[in-house]
Specification:
Elements: E1 2-6, H1 10-21, E2 25-29, H2 33-40, H3 51-60, E3 64-67, H4 70-74, E4 79-82, H5 97-109, E5 114-118, H6 126-137, E6 143-147, H7 157-162, E7 167-170, H8 174-183, H9 185-189, E8 194-197, H10 199-230, H11 234-242, H12 263-276, H13 282-305, E9 314-318, H14 333-343, E10 347-351, H15 356-359, E11 369-370, E12 383-386, H16 398-404, E13 409-412, H17 419-424, E14 428-430
Parallel strand pairs: 1-2, 1-4, 2-3, 4-5, 5-6, 7-8, 9-10, 9-12, 10-11, 12-13, 13-14
Helix pairs in contact: 1-3, 5-6, 10-12, 10-13, 12-13, 13-14
């Protein structure tokens, strides 16, 4: 089948590459000519394990191409996927201008029956509005609009696409459903659940899924705070409730709060959507507020551990991205934490395996000293702060760390070490929701 993918951001690039890996002929479109040229040269705009090899191999195989010409890409294809950004407005609602700009361009060049699928995360009712827009512009065009939300985790996106928990397709016509079945045929062969719903349900499933996971993270973070007051261990609590099949063990890892491109944006958008319909979601509103507050709590914890002041103190920061195995800095907890420490007078030395180029573009990090490795951040530092749980931070040379630090204080916001072992090694070790921290 022939597919056009509008947008070469995280979702569009990964989805386009994976569809071509299925054997379809995919053309990815982006208005950023420099970005297109870089991808053609094998330079990925994002860090995602395995993506570069997949893109290069499918370009060589003739199944994956990149262009800035939307008309050439869309004309005569079987399906057009819209994978452009839907950033948040000031009120939390999704900015749909990029989606409908793409729709208007697509409508002008459609030929023959085509499925237009939204992969972007969009408010409920978007599919209906897209269909109305195309009908207005091309009243005689034969088409269907479907919702096909993505559920890709950064750092494991290719595996998530190739072996997903489920595929959700919101469609109103049998013709559209059959085309989408054929597009995802390789997943039928491995018995992947394919859920067909109405477009409205598919659109809401994406928001509901992300919001539920954000709620789960926020819940375990609050339980971690309670553990510290009661002398319980959050690892034991998480395991104890996670073994319950109704709850599950995923997303029960206490830390500095959720970030990234999806959870913050989608929780706010769902709150705004619900308020506009007169059916407010009080639980989700609380989740948003608690997660925002959590970052400041982490800052207060760090300052208190440093003697109630970080002024003119060197602080080592390990990990900047919102999660490991990505270079994505969007709404990472590190942004608020580092910026507040800088405002409090700290001298910040930071290292991240993949995220520093992106971090350097963020004004909140102005004044940060950038280091080439973890150990370079440590010389005479008053504290070491672990914000992102990269694997390379899990096996640091503790003797070398202790020798380099001015004070043997480690504040581990991801709980990647065992408190008893760190204390036995001579460290002051503060983590989240665990006992034996001093």
């Amino acid at each position: 089948m022939r597919v056009a993918m509008i947008g070469t951001g995280y979702v569009g690039l990964v989805s386009g590459a994976c569809f071509s890996q299925f054997g379809h002929y995919v053309t990815c479109v982006d208005s950023d000519v420099e970005k297109i040229d870089a991808i053609r040269a094998g330079q990925m705009p994002i860090f995602e394990p395995g993506l570069e090899d997949m893109v290069v191999n499918n370009m060589k195989g003739g199944r994956l191409t990149f262009t800035g010409d939307l008309k050439t890409a869309v004309t005569g294809v079987d399906a057009v996927f819209i994978a452009v950004g839907t950033p948040g407005e000031d009120d939390g609602s999704a900015d749909m201008s990029f989606v409908f700009s793409a729709v208007e361009e697509i409508a002008q060049v459609l030929k023959g029956y085509t499925v237009i699928a939204t992969k972007s995360t969009v408010p409920v009712g978007t599919g209906k509005n897209v269909a109305e827009t195309i009908k207005r512009l091309r009243p005689n065009q034969d088409f269907d609009v479907v919702s096909n939300p993505e559920f890709l985790r950064e750092g494991s996106a290719i595996e998530d696409f190739m072996r997903p928990d489920r595929v959700v397709i919101g469609a109103n016509s049998d013709k559209a459903r059959e085309l989408m079945r054929e597009l995802y045929r390789p997943l039928y062969l491995i018995q992947t659940p394919i859920l067909f719903t109405s477009p409205e349900s598919a659109e809401l499933i994406k928001y509901a899924a992300n919001t539920f996971l954000a709620t789960k993270i926020t819940f375990i973070n609050e339980i971690a705070d309670l553990c510290e007051r009661l002398g319980a261990d959050i690892h034991e609590i998480a395991r104890g409730i996670g073994l319950d099949g109704r709850i599950g063990s995923k997303f029960l890892h206490a830390g500095p709060g959720y970030g990234g491109s999806c959870f913050p944006k989608d929780t706010r958008a769902l709150v705004a959507m619900a308020q506009k319909t007169g059916s407010p979601l009080q639980i989700v509103e609380t989740v948003v507020r608690v997660n925002n507050d959590r970052k400041q709590k982490m800052v207060s914890r760090i300052i208190a551990a440093c003697g109630n002041s970080v002024r003119e103190k060197k602080i080592s920061i390990l990990g900047l991205t919102f999660k490991p195995n990505t270079d994505d800095m969007r709404e990472s907890p590190s942004i608020e934490i580092v910026s507040q420490l800088l405002k409090a007078g700290a001298d910040i030395f930071a290292y991240d395996p993949e995220g520093m180029d992106e971090a350097k573009k963020i004004d909140s990090f102005a004044g940060t000293r950038w280091c080439d490795n973890a150990y370079e951040t440590l010389n005479d530092a008053s504290a070491l702060i672990i914000i992102t749980e990269w694997n390379e931070f899990r096996a640091l040379d503790l003797a070398q760390i202790k020798e380099k630090l001015k004070r043997p204080l480690i504040i581990d916001l991801r709980n990647i070490y065992e408190p008893e072992e760190m204390i036995a090694a001579g460290f002051e070790y503060l983590c989240v929701g665990r006992t034996s921290q001093e």
